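Example (one chain per record):
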Amino acid sequence: MAVIKPVFPYFRENPQTMLLDISTWWQSMQLFEKIFWVIALLFSLLFLVQTILSFAAGDNDTAMGDADSYIDHDDGIGYQFFTIKNMIAFFTMFGWSGIACIHGNRSVAATILFSLLSGIIVVTAMVILMRLMGRLKESGTMNIGNAVDQTATVYLIIPAARKGMGKVHVKIQGTLRELNAITDQATDISSGSLVKITGVVNENILLVTSNFA
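Predicted structure:
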């Protein structure tokens, strides 16, 4: 029965013996496999640090500094492939996929090709996920046009004939909002009155009337 070569040496209580086993394990590998192990371990560590700092800092990219921020705000491509986060994810998957192929006795060409494809697939999945999350965020942004034909309550008096702005409370997309409002009526609309929103002026001011007819 074939003996499967362990990925790591067995843990032993004697630290010196353990270090010797690790040294022997490392020396027994070919240069090609060593390269994949270095890539896998290094970028796995970076990925772990990045993840921890992302949770700690609210995903503000503190771990990666200004470099990632600069690349992410490049206007050339939306949801960039070439960010530090994606690079770390790519090489993490590249390294571990290569190790798996090597231990599966794949050829050098097949190992490199499979590792590259694995890394590209992971980055592509991350970009698609970020794009979907961006769409969800946009869908949750208030669209003031949804207020048209809604009923609102006057919070601050609305001067007549667009001589000034008042404020109204209106529920838009399930959230109560306080927005600026004007009216074409010949008389002021007092606080506490109910009004109907008939339009939007300058993209952020509601046009209202107290005439519900």
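Caption: The mean pLDDT is 79.
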